[in-house]
Amino acid sequence: MTPAHLLAVLPPPELASQVEAFRAPLGLRESPPHVTVKARSGLGVNLDWVKAARAVVDASPLFPLTVEGARTFRSGSAVYLAVTSPGLVALHVRLLEALEPAQRFGYEGPHMTPHLTLALGRHRVDLEGVFQAAREAFAHLEAQPLTFTVREVWRMRKAGPGALYLPEEAWELAGG
Description:
The chain is of the alpha+beta class. It has a single domain (4-172), classed as Alpha-Beta Complex (Cyclic Phosphodiesterase, Chain: A), CATH 3.90.1140.10. It contains 5 helices and 8 strands. Strands 2-1-7-8 form a 4-stranded antiparallel sheet. Helix 2 packs antiparallel against helix 3. The longest helix is centred in the first third of the chain and has 14 residues, at 13-26. The radius of gyration is 16 Å and the shape is globular. This is 2'-5' RNA ligase. One of its GO terms (molecular function) is ligase activity.
């Protein structure tokens, strides 16, 4: 099993609890609620990227992040809560520039779609049903989006295929 890493923002505890409470009765097994800042490309197992990534995070200002209602990707790959945060996208781009991954995912870059995954389209997951349930459960975020200030970025790790990403280490932003 090869471990994998990503960098992410964790939502406020109240929202994380709401997401977990939504997932539980549907039997959804997902990583703890998070918004990915930098996906695993260029984040090798040997952690030689940590120093450069941490320097970018350490030099980055605090930024606002707004969470809105439920959406689905056109590809049908996931149901998620929409996220708006130019600061998160800017941090993502700075990380790409600093890390220079040999390969990048097509969704990486200034066109990225920040989001908080509720459910991935895995075997036996009825994403249309999950989406309808999510629209109801998170309608309050559609009516009144939640905005919070991001003060730290988390290094998350999963042990290997089939495992979940888990938060391992928090890195404070400048002014955090």
